[in-house]
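Lay summary. Proteins are chains of building blocks that fold into shapes, and those shapes determine what they do. In this project we predict the shape from the chain. Here is one chain we studied, written as its sequence of building blocks.
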Amino acid sequence: MTRHIQGLHHVTSLASDAQVNNDFFTKTLGLRRIKKTVNFDAPEVYHLYYGDKTGTPGSVMTYFPFPGARSGSAGTGEVSETAFAVPHGSLDFWQDRLSRLGVGGLGREERFGEQRLTLAGPDGDGFALVETDDARTPWRHADVPEQHAIRGFHSVTMRLADKAENADLLRFMGYEDAGQHGAISRLAVPEGNGADVIDIEIAPDMPEAQQGAGSVHHIAFSVEDEEAQTEVRRALLNAGYQVTPMIDRDYFRAIYFRSPGGVLFEVATTDPGFDRDEDIAHLGEALKLPKQHAHLRERLEREHLEPIRD
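And here is the predicted shape, written in a compact code that computers can read:
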């Protein structure tokens, strides 16, 4: 078992339109775009990051918007919902706001004693806002009062055909059992970073999910630094998991492995952070390219990357 995992670092999903995606997170949900870069493996596609003021681990939602991508199909072996934390008493504000802005999939429910507002993203992405005590400082957005603003992630829900092996993996990573709500099992990191809850929903009769626009590509867990990441990687390898070598993602260092339920897991470092190549006051404004793609800037901007209106 490892105790280096602090909770979620980021969640990365797929989208079909960069401008629509940008507007949903920055204008509708009131998050900050903290980085505008490109997919390391497909530089013709944006990689957009949203979060709090500095992109604190546990607040960062990221997207690969493939223009015109087909929609994903729901099923098992995927993250079915990403939940954000909001202060107690905020859901009426959010329900009214999201309804006025035409957001679909709105519904109220209770899970593990917490009040939740479900909603759908532009590509049918599954989201929820969860009322909870959370001391994290939100990004200040003109249209969202600070007392209602998103604090960061609360949790993700993984929909699986069977929970046993995945729950064992999470326990190995430092999560502990935190309750049962119908078909949903909850695990949490004690004294984590606020984004420290994983819910597992068992749906054995559903088909396997097919990824597309609106699907979560992977979830990343946060560790402090490369030393902690190395220890986590060693522990996972010794336990029989196939883990990639460390990959430099410019703003963090990453390792990847496939969980038993089919969800792609990443373990990412806190350092060096999103201000390594931009001043904090101007995060997310300029197009930043990985050094291996810097020579492609003129072609990418001319032929592939449509300008994003802020």
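What the prediction tells us: The radius of gyration is 18 Å.
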